[in-house]
Amino acid sequence: MKLTRWVILICTFLLFIMMLVLLTGCNATLSPEDEARINRRFAFMHQLAQLPRPPPEIIYTRDPGFEISGLTTCSNWTITINYYVAASRPDFVIEKLIPHEYAHLVSCFYRGGTSGKDGNAHDDYWKQWVVRLDGDPTYI
Questions:
Q1: How far is it, in rounded angstroms, from Cα 4 to Cα 6?
Q2: Which of 76, 74, 69, 79 is nearest to 41 (CA)?
Q3: DSSP 26-75
Q4: Which CATH number fits domain 31-132: 3.30.2010.10, 3.40.50.12160, 3.40.50.150, 3.50.50.60?
Q5: Is-contact 60 86, C-beta < 8 A?
Q6: Domain spans of the chain, in order of start
Q7: Alpha-carbon distance 70 to 121, whole Å?
Q8: How would you list the strands of the sheet with 70-73, edge to edge?
Q9: DSSP string computed for 81-137
Q10: CA 112, CA 88: separation in Å to the nearest integer?
Q11: What's the whole-model pTM score?
Q12: pLDDT tens digits, one per residue of 88-119
């Protein structure tokens, strides 16, 4: 009986900690300074890539079902960024995520709408673009 109470107490405590972590991350707010830094990074990516078309639309999503950091959609010429990741980890978004997603966009453009060869969106061509865009090709 005593063991059961301890198990319930420990499980309740762990559940409380998990909820606290979840709520803290979801309540993060993207500061105007960080948003400006992110926008400057996107502008720099567009300048480096020298694409002969306007920059992509950048969408910040707060959708809880969007469980990844970012997504490039070539057909819509958009890059979607997880708002909560941008708000809680702006340096990660600037240094790793933006070059990663922009390399997908550039790959799509030069490959005629497809981001990778044989279903591999992170192939050598994509990695070359990540390096050209001053990113980390090991972040996949």
A1: 5
A2: 79
A3: HT----HHHHHHHHHHHHHHHHHHT-SSPPPEEEEE--TT--SSEEEETT
A4: 3.30.2010.10
A5: yes
A6: 1-29, 31-132
A7: 14
A8: 57-61, 78-82, 70-73
A9: EEHHHHHH-HHHIIIIIHHHHHHHHHHHHHTTS-SSBTTBTTSHHHHHHHHHTT--T
A10: 35
A11: 0.77
A12: 999 999 999 999 999 999 999 998 877 677 67
- pLDDT digits 0-9 by tens, 43-78: 999 999 999 999 999 999 999 899 999 999 999 999
3-class SS of residue 76: coil
Work out the pLDDT band at 19, boundaries 50, 70, 90. very low
pLDDT of residue 18: 47
Assigned token pair, 88: 């809680």
- Supply φ then ψ for residue 65, to 5 degrees: -80, -10
